[in-house]
Amino acid sequence: MTVTLADVAARAQVSPATVSRVLNGNYPVAASTRERVLKAVDELDYVLNGPASALAAATSDLVGILVNDIADPFFGIMASAIQAEIGGPGGRAGGERLAVVCNTGGSPERELTYLTLLQRQRAAAVVLTGGAIEDAEHQAAMDAKVRKLTEAGTRVVLCGRPPAPDTGAIALTFDNRGGGQELTEHLIGLGHRRLGYIAGPEERTTTRHRLEGHRAALAAHGIEEDPRWTVHGRYDRRSGYEATLELMRRDPSLTAVVAANDSVALGACAALRDSGLRIPEDVSVAGFDDLPFSIDAVPSLTTVRLPLADAGARAGRIAMGREEAPPGGIASVRGELMVRGSAGTPRAS
Amino acid sequence: MTVTLADVAARAQVSPATVSRVLNGNYPVAASTRERVLKAVDELDYVLNGPASALAAATSDLVGILVNDIADPFFGIMASAIQAEIGGPGGRAGGERLAVVCNTGGSPERELTYLTLLQRQRAAAVVLTGGAIEDAEHQAAMDAKVRKLTEAGTRVVLCGRPPAPDTGAIALTFDNRGGGQELTEHLIGLGHRRLGYIAGPEERTTTRHRLEGHRAALAAHGIEEDPRWTVHGRYDRRSGYEATLELMRRDPSLTAVVAANDSVALGACAALRDSGLRIPEDVSVAGFDDLPFSIDAVPSLTTVRLPLADAGARAGRIAMGREEAPPGGIASVRGELMVRGSAGTPRAS
DNA sequence: AGCGTTTTAGCAAGCGCTTTCTATATAGGG
DNA sequence: CCCTATATAGAAAGCGCTTGCTAAAACGCT
After folding, report:
1. Is residue B141 pLDDT above 70, yes or no?
2. Which residue is nearest to nucleotide C20 (CA to C1')?
């Protein structure tokens, strides 16, 4: 029915072992032999049986990429950088890996299940992206799973995610705390003293770190935070819109709104504009991430640029063993403050 | 080292065959036996060896989803609907399928390579999303590959993609032509006679179909199209911005700009606004797709809603054999005109 | 020419599961 | 109480590949 290695071997007048070796290219085969084999492969339109190969070799060419929300460009950019680096199609020589992205939708169960599925597939590596979920039980389960994976020889790298100590995973963490602090200090430097903050969902590490940075900046400048100044929402535009309305209702004297990310910031801009407020003359707005649309916004968004594509590419290379892991298995990647039009000096009031 | 089926069998005092059967649940096993086995599985923390299983069963639980651009919400929404339906983690009983998305980046080679990789993995099904590439040679290669997949028992479904006749693939096509026509007719009904059109990349079927619809509407109303009124770009915001500037430079008397999709339309809005033109008082703008951000835009976008999530879910069910394929293996899904604020009556002039 | 090396290729033993076929209990009917 | 259905479990033969080991051929020395 389907053509197998043996068929190719017969046609090329060699043993199956030889065919396997030319296909894997990890063993010397005479040029003339190789050519004959390749010709047979081509003529028979042979496609290697992945499962059989993975079984015999005790490892597959599958690499999994876990993302929280596939429809969010934050993850899209990282995933596509990782995928490009991992090779797969269009990759470098021998790069026939299947890089696949799995969408957890931010659900703890799905996160875990995907990890199990990948483990079952004997994935060669897995990259986990984005903030983790702050739930002790879930984190323990994740860590146990990750440890099991690394022990079984699967390389696990965390990209834009906090380190998982003692699991064997390599972490490329974004310095959300530092970025958040720098951003808020910029606003304070501009003269703002009354700053609203729209945080992400409470259970995500990213949310907490960015908020901590913001508060550290306030504290460093002796600004006492009013509890009314912080609201939690989701990481999307609509949530930013609603949260901003709420914020301005609670305290109309705010002169700046710092958003958990750029989408939220855009929602904030829309809400302010709909309230008849000008940006940045009446209220300044700042975002986080510097996604591609942020510079196009009117006014363009002051934000913290996270090197998503670079970090993704690096994570991909580490996952492939093509780049050395950072010392201690942990690296913190800083964001870069992008000063643009959405934040200015506060209104006189 | 790693625990195998045999270990579980030994622990549960049954044969490996029995363990396999309780795991697959496709053969009667006494309740007491099943329980014993499940207990052993749990105690040993056993994870099935996917490749071995796939080899023996001659099929895997992998399902591939091909997308053109993972960072584009258009694909993100479809992919996430497909993935949800296919089950995988969090799916229905027995739904332990691994639904993975593969990002082709719009490249023909990668498209083909991913298909081969999926074929190699003996994927249970594959879903191809989004417009196809209009290149006879590439399409022939794709069709051949798809035929090979369906012949090997892999279900192939096309979601938002033109049918591939005689390949055994099932198509859920969006009626881009009809949607494009309806949209432009709406604008014409509003009184517009001078309409610019920002098309997508020339080589995509989606681009051609939408443009054909637009032109059909013009023709139906006896409007002769000026060659200056059409420019081609990419499917992103920046491209829309630039194209709009070009369009207005070519013919400042245009009263409406129809964009290939919503991102492009948003870019168009920004360009018009930056040119000092009001929307829709001076120039009307229309998009396509109705992505979530379109209703949030100011003014909200008049556009054609494509049922991305519904179509994705349906494609997923068909791929899983859980829903019957449409008659003839082809279904055309209509979009719905969303009349909103970005398009109004043309300015007097 | 003889011998040790180095290349190159084949043999065959699995990898860990599924599944057909067969065997053994158990139950039901006369 | 025996005989035939029926339910349940096991034996064993692969699935198609990889790879350690071995063998043969080719090469370079002395």
Report:
1. yes
2. B17
